[in-house]
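Recall the central idea of this unit: under ordinary conditions, the amino acid sequence of a chain determines the structure it adopts. In this exercise we apply that idea directly, starting from the sequence alone.
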Amino acid sequence: MPDRNRALIVSPWVAMEDDPSDAPTNHPLLMDEYVIFKHVDVSEQPSKNLICVPNECAIEIECSDEVLAAIELDSDYEVLWSEEIT
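Accordingly, the structure predicted from this sequence is:
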């Protein structure tokens, strides 16, 4: 099994009207750009209630070492904390 990490990330979100998928939703942009094993919206706010300003949401994710390293270098995201899952 690859190394796994848990991290809290601040991500821009994609508004439902900007989501080109077959089932549009408000969702974190991070989910479109990286392979994430698991994610949880720590705000527990319904996606339909997200507001445009600020365009940010906090999500706890599980991902590989490689993905976490890429997110840490990506200026679209802020990693608030991370830890290796053992």
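Residues 16 and 23 are 9 Å apart (CA to CA).
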